[in-house]
Amino acid sequence: MLTKPVFAADLVSTSNIRRALAIAAHPDDIDFGAGATIAALTDAGVEVTFCLVTSGDAGGFELDQTREQMVARRQQEQRDAARELGVDQVCFLDHSDGYVEPTHRLISQLVGVMRQVQPEVVISQHPQRNWERIQASHPDHLAVGEATARAIYPAVENPFAYPELELPAFHIGQLWMMGAPTELANLAVDVTDHVERKLSALHRHVSQHPDPKVMDDRVRAALAANHPEVDRAAERFHVVAVNDETTFAGF
């Protein structure tokens, strides 16, 4: 059940969030799903890392571009967008766009990234299809959500899982999932003061959004619909306490 929107800075202080890792299938997925929240988190002093499972090689509208050219372009667009949100660390796992599956190879890669970053919070996509807006449930999104969940528990905290990584086991505090079915969303973050930063990040993905005004209008309407008050905006998530139940303390 969705609660009253809270501010990211309050979540940071309550849950002692210092590092967050955002994982998604394609460039621009994080910016759409959590861009304003991430801007609020970095403003509150949280160090955020982006991990993109693909480089978006199947995206774009220009048929004269090679896939290699599109990969280079989309990776740079994502780095530029991340900087708009206060994020400097961006990695790509180079899986093929449109063919992502929750394989042990992908889970191992995600475990490796998690153990290196050691975040208190992982932000990722939801493994359950949202029938109210199927575009949020691209098969790659569902696969990344499932692989992330498997990596978070039990793999990342099991010292006997993927020993070839030669990285120490680590416990994740919380999982925040984007694109959740409405009935599962239990956290709304008030992002009213960070909407413009989100849009600035999305505008960096030039290859994907030929009509930025239409995109802006759609994003603003969605953020407004997530907040019960007029002239306010929110992003919503399905939050699972993996090893930290303080997310909602005091709210």
TrEMBL record:
Pfam families linked to this entry: PIG-L
Family annotation (Gene3D superfamilies): LmbE-like
Stated name of the protein: LmbE family N-acetylglucosaminyl deacetylase
Keyword Ligase recorded: no
PANTHER family xref list: LMBE FAMILY PROTEIN (PTHR12993:SF28), N-ACETYLGLUCOSAMINYL-PHOSPHATIDYLINOSITOL DE-N-ACETYLASE-RELATED (PTHR12993)
Entry superkingdom: Bacteria
Keyword Glycosyltransferase appears in the UniProt entry: no
Keyword annotations of the record: Zinc
Coiled-coil stretches noted in the UniProt entry, renumbered to this chain: none
